[in-house]
Amino acid sequence: MIMKKTKSERRVKALGWKDGTVAEFLGLTPEESALIEIKLALSRKLRERRQQRMTQAQLAKKLQSSQSRIAKAETGDGSVSIELLVRAMLATGATPKEIGRTIAENG
């Protein structure tokens, strides 16, 4: 079944725009896309685990970091390293196996 394009879709195409993925728009390699997905999965899981166990300030103290850095880690800020995400997950009591599962399921 072929769907007819809407008026707005025709206008968008006429302006030179096209449909695509974020990765295509940014010109990301499959490896770069995978890395972003891994970081986002770890960020989401970190927030979930941390909220069940402690405040951002408490986690920051455990990591000798700042509350604002933990907030950035939990929102997937690009400046946060995977190392910090893993260290923070471990500080919430996650096991390496749980971290691996988070990556495998969502990355």
Biggest pleated-sheet summary: none
Question: What is the CA-CA span between the terminal residues?
Answer: 33 Å
CATH class of the domain at 38-107: Mainly Alpha
User: From the alpha-carbon coordinates, what is the Rg to the nearest angstrom?
Assistant: 19 Å
Query: What's the CATH topology name of the domain at 38-107?
Result: 434 Repressor (Amino-terminal Domain)
| Class derived from helix and strand content | mainly alpha
Shape, per Cα inertia axes? elongated
Report the strand count. 0
CATH superfamily of the domain at 38-107: lambda repressor-like DNA-binding domains
Helical segment count: 7
The SSE order reads: HHHHHHH
Helix content: 55-70%
CATH architectural designation of the domain at 38-107: Orthogonal Bundle
Mean pLDDT: 89
Runs in which pLDDT lies below 50 for 5 or more consecutive residues are none
- Provide the β-strand percentage band: under 5%
